[in-house]
Amino acid sequence: MAIPKVMGTEIEYGITVKNDRDFDPISSCVLLVNSYREEHTAQILWDYDQENPLADARGFQVEGEKYTPNQQENIARNKTLVNGARYYVDHAHPEYSCPEVTNARDLVIHEKAGERVVEASRREANRVLPSGTQMLLYKNNSDRKGNSYGSHENYLMDRRTSFKQIAEHLMPFFVTRQVYTGAGKVGSENRSSPCTYQLTQRADFFETEVALDTMVKRPIINTRDEPHADREKYRRLHVIVGDSNMSEYTIYLRNGVTALVLGMIEDGVLGKDLSLRDPVRAIKEVSHDADCKLELELQSGKRMTAIQMQAEYLEAAMRYADSHEVGSDTGDLLEKWAYVLDTLAREPMDLHRELDWVIKKSIIEGFIERKGLDWEAPQVQMLDLQYHDMRPEKGLYYLAERQGRVERIVSDEEIDHAIQHPPEDTRAYFRGGCLRRYASEVFGVNWDSISFGIGDEPIKRVLMAEPLKGSKAHVEDLFQTSPTAAELVKNLRG
Predict the structure, then answer these.
(1) Which domain holds residue 224?
(2) Which positions are annotated as active-site residues?
């Protein structure tokens, strides 16, 4: 039986400083991350010793050197938050990795909490910038100068399921799920065919089918084998093919449907072969087809639209839900998935309340009509960018949200709560609880461990190899009987 799909996202944000001719993205990112303050703070290292980004899921180790920053740089670039998240500098971008969750609804809550964390730190950072300059952040995927940055999804999977099987079933799914996961984009990049508007921000940047890289020759299926859990039991599927989404409805479908499909792969219920003749070409073709009518060529010689291919997965999921134990939100996910596919087949623009790419297209088309412009106008590209602006008073998505013109999945109260509180049903609860209670004695943190520096004693590392252990049900009594970190470690080993 498929294992529970613990999941999370890693969102890289676009960053610039307006009116700064000497803009340095790395120092700006460091300022941003360090501008975020919590009540319980300490200088805590991120434990890079526990990471191995060169391991490939196909069974080998890629040659190369793992970069490990020195202690001062480590502290300057990393923050582990009391809600269990990691907020840090990744190359030249600020990145927010939300805590591990067990369902798509909680994923929406914690990804949206990340938006509020980065915006709060942006406001604080601006207080120390020179007069006349302003830091700006965008939850998007391209700087329009040929650079793309990622929105990565992570899903816990059973190690016994072969990676070859995973890749075969996911390739057509990833290529076609763009019809409801895309964030929308004006024009094209990376030498792709010209278009006025496309479904996604990332499709133009994928150049190969399966590989380990995330920044050069980007693959549709990423092979990083870094489980952040018991390696004998689990793999972490690292998904780099998605967009950074603003719409709660889109985020919910993106992660919820993908987790459901992964469960079906583990349980071996996806029998139909939907392999595409040329996935790299197809991913761009789907993105450039805003009418969602283009037929893709399959290896079998058959031709199907992206919607028809998604409908095959939906039908399999409905049968699966009738015969297997599934999550409590599966019924709602299936209903929304079916509604979206039916509406896309009839008239995509009718989803102007639900899907990012349609919401954005509707806003831009209204602007073009009012101003008498065309799609090539520079104001249109600026409008595209403004959709992703993290400033609540400026971002076009946030404006539509305040005006009640988009569908919500969660409440503002739930999002605000998640800024300071971890999910209660994963090990993130233990991580966040330790930071809240024992921050001054926490030495280092990773997703699957936490280390304590207690007096003159050697560093005490507590392993968290099981993502579903360390939940409130597991550790709340432990916290109550451990007023200090020393007593926590003693009680854990007692």
Answers:
(1) 7-38+81-416
(2) 90
